[in-house]
Amino acid sequence: MTDLRSNIFYKIVIIVTLSIYAAYLTYRLLYTINPEALIFSIVFYFAELYGLVALFLYFFQMWDFPHREVNLPEQGLRVAALIPTYNEDISVIRKTALACMNMDYPHDTYILDDGARPRVRELAHEIGCKYLERQTRIGAKAGNLNHAIQQIDADFFAIFDSDYVPYPHFLIKTLGFFKNSQVAFVQTPQHYYNIDSFTFRYSQKKQRIWNEQEVFYRLMMSGRDYWNSTFFVGTAAILRKEALESIGGVATETITEDLHTTIRLYKKGWKGIYHNEVLASGLSPMDITTYQTQKLRWAYGNISVIFYDNPILAKGLTLPQRICFFATCFGWTVGFSKAIYFISPGVLLLTGMYPIANFDMEFIIIYLTFLLTVLSGFKIASRGFGKVFRDEEYNMLNFFILMRATLRAIFRRKSEYKVTVKDAALPISLLYLIPQFFVLLTSYIGINWGLFKLYFHISQDYKGLGIASFWAFVNGFLAFSIVRGVTKPYHGRRHFRIPESLPLYVYQGNERFIGWTGNINERGVSLLSLSPLDLSRDVKLEIIIGTEVVKCEGEIVYENIRKTNKIYSYGIKLRNLTPVQENIIISHCFNVALPRLFRNFGAHISYLNNWVKMLRAKRIIKRKGQRYFIHILAIVRTEDGRERPYVTHDLSLSGALIITYESIFLNSSLYLDLILPVGKVGMQGRVVRTEELSLGKQTTYLLGIKFEDDNDISRQRLREFLKRESQRGYLEYFRVS
Amino acid sequence: MVRKPLIIVASLTLISLIVFFIFNLAYRDQILVNQAFFRMVNIPSPSLVDIVQKSSRRNLSKDDSAFLYRLSTILIRKRMRSEAIEVLGRALKNEPDNPQLKLQLATELFNDGRYEEVERLFNELLSQVR
After folding, report:
1. Residue A460 and residue B31: Cβ atoms within 8 Å?
2. How far, CA to CA in Å, does A621 sit from each of A610, A614, A617, A624, A706?
3. Cα B79 off chain centre by
4. pLDDT at A731
5. Nearest Cα residue to A80 out of A186, A155, A139, A172
């Protein structure tokens, strides 16, 4: 669970940042409005003013964070898990339904099928969960939920979108909050697991994953919880039936029924809780078409709530609640101010019109002071979650769609509820990227024009044109970066595979090899082996998943040889898996591998925050020695003579970290055979650290092993291997082909 | 793999060439005057008259002060004093506090025998300096 602390230091940072911003705007208004380009100057000023309001609302929502203890729920609560669906793929619903069935607390699982599909009914029957269908589609998802809530006899409803796979302890961790009879709902972070979507940015080398939604769900929602202003987001949440009945059910007037429902609940005096721990994971849009459809719906829905249930004027809301809900609606109107920032340098360079009068050295110094203060304040207050460049990239991607949504909401054009495609990537439509290409083009043309002016002595304003050219370059780079990220070819695989290293045995004919997986799902694996396979023949696999062994057949569908280090990589399509075996793989992927992946690759505290911590005299412990995140197969022989294959988590000359599913005692001696391309390297070692990770239903252990082998040859071979492979990355976590 | 960067570079080059072409059309007169000013390229007198007339018809921007100053210098070299005085007068209207323009205009007015205007200009210059 993310534990955010807010103390006086962060509050001072927030106050100072806002004060400097306000002072800067006052100076701008008094001294720098340009009468020779009055309209441009005023428009630009309003964009900056918008920024101040937006920053104030942003900081307000992270002023402080509540500290909540998770209590165990009472026995005997009547709980139903609801999975509303319309036209989503069966395999997507299947994973979610299976995971819902696996949740710890006694409950019933319902698939709410608005599409009345026989295949979904069969799926429910096969899995053993309940099935509800509607004859009409009135109210879309909200209508579907209301229909179910009226029919089902339960006190609490856990709601999951059809692609949202809950972890087993979802109910255990959330139901306890309902001991307070005023609590209407508990919301958990909306989290995604398909990290190859363009909404993610990742670095295997830096061990970082960043998602566009991180700041909102890991930080802002928790901050809103402090003001009792968190809101139901439509999935990964649990609601009290009594609360819903008190407001006439889930709101159906807008297409963001979740936000609207929340406002109604708060008006009635109910409370909401945000439990800042990822307890469910879903699918992020895989293509620009789906992404824009979703964004348009969210933006339009959130803004139009103002016209149905204006949170600013609503009776029953506290002042902080009004501010927070106003922030929710206001935040989606950012498109216009961003458009002004993106177009302004091009306008300046092409027309010679300056939005700032007295553009001299004094102004530049004032502006730089202001900019550095605001950026630093943002970074510190964002606790490592806010990434200025990434945030601006996605502002570049979204600005036009948000403008459309704002105008649509203002002019009250109806928008219908369009289900987000969850199971495949649609073809890339460049039409959606026209605004970004436009920014790129105007920036590039503007830079050229400005440089020609200077070169041919048309203008002597090196300062102004130079700064404008730099600004246009930054905008152009943002546009180029996001276009490149969005248009990179999506992998041919329809169903995302979780990166996970599991040892396995491969049988082909009379031969037996040992290998390990690069990634896995219930349909296939990426197999890594030091021995080549015969592509014309199928294989039999024994995949060691924790304490289970999944035996199945496999068809080799692709081969990729990394010739430099003789690792053979194969794409294997799994066949003839029983439902039990599928469940084992799905369960491991979502309950063990995924939480561990995000634990290792989650938000890291930024350098600036590290520096701040140093100033506050907190010790930052650095690891000794260079460890490489390399996944190597290791046959571990323990003191009792047992041999088990494992995969290393990281490796160095002095030791290794290994993931196991059974505990090995501290200070135990063991022997590792590291399976390297150059051959086996045997190392004697001792367990110096054990860490238990209770992830999902399976406990995993991280064992730190210190090598105690004096064998020079072994150490030499290991050293050579690490030197050669460390830069390359032995295991491609995020391969997309 | 190499094709994509090549396409991008080729596209950007093409755009730059198009921009350059349009730029030359838009600033044809200014480029010509600058070439004459900096590199002593000869501009025939009828073309200079044409440039003077065109500049009198359009709205002037901040950057035009330097252009008008250079144009006036070329006119002076060509002994087209009345045109030079007219251009400098317009330049000063565009940028009234430019000392270089005032000095140039004062010099030409002096050479033209308009001493009262010269005295006014020099008084303005001196009060600026003080």
Report:
1. no
2. 11, 11, 12, 9, 19
3. 17
4. 40
5. A155
Please give the residue range of the domain that contains residue A423. 8-61+334-487
Residue range(s) defining the domain that contains residue B67: 3-129
CA distances from A552 to A515, A522, A539, A541 (A): 15, 11, 9, 5
Cβ neighbours of B18 (radius 10 Å): 12
Domain count of the fold of chain B: 1
For B30, the closest of A352, A448, A458 (CB atoms) is: A458
- Residue spans of chain A under pLDDT 50: 616-624, 727, 729-737
Asked if the Cβ–Cβ distance from B34 to A458 is below 8 Å, we say yes
Sign of CA pseudo-dihedral A527, A528, A529, A533: positive
> Residue B83 has what pLDDT?
92
Q: Which residues of A touch B34 (CB under 8 A)?
A: 456-458
Q: Which residue of B has its CA nearest to A351?
A: B61
Could you tell me how many residues make up chain A? 737
End-to-end CA distance of chain B: 67
Same domain, A389 and A368: yes
DSSP B57: H
CB-based burial, A227-246: b 16+ in 10 Å, e otherwise: bbbbbbbbbbbbbbbebbee
Residues A126 and A45 in one domain: no
Say how far apart CA B7 and CA A721 lie, in whole Å: 39
Instruction: Report the distance separating Cα A196 and Cα A285, nearest Å.
Output: 10
| Range A150-153 contact pairs with CB under 8 angstroms and sequence separation of 24 or more | A150/A249, A152/A80, A152/A82, A152/A108, A152/A110, A153/A78
Q: Which two tokens stand for residue A504?
A: 């396995």
Whether residue A301 lies inside any domain: the answer is no
What is the predicted pLDDT for the residue at A322? Answer: 94
Length reported for chain B: 130
Same domain, A448 and A543: no
| Residue A482 and residue A518 in one domain | no
What CATH number is attached to the domain comprising A102? 3.90.550.10
What is the DSSP secondary structure assignment for residue B41, as one 8-state letter? -
Q: What is the CATH number of the domain that holds A531?
A: 2.40.10.220
Place of tokens 């249930």: A309
Nearest CA in chain B to A448: B16
- Which H/E stretch holds residue A684? strand A679-695
**ipTM value of the model?**
0.90
pLDDT tens-digit map of B97-128: 888 899 999 999 999 999 999 999 999 888 88
Mutate one of B3, B11, B12, B19 to test the A interface: name it (highest A CB count within 10 A).
B19
DSSP state, A419?
A: P
Distance, CA of A530 to CA of A678 (rounded, Å): 9
CA-to-CA separations, A242 to A81, A154, A179, A265, A520, in angstroms, rounded: 16, 10, 14, 11, 42
Q: What is the CATH number of the domain that holds B113?
A: 1.25.40.10
pLDDT class of B45 with cuts at 50, 70, 90: confident
Q: Are residues A280 and A142 in the same domain?
A: yes
Distance in angstroms (rounded) separating the CA atoms of residues A74 and A180: 12
Chain A residues touching B27 at Cβ < 8 A? 453, 456, 458
Strands A200-203 and A208-211: antiparallel
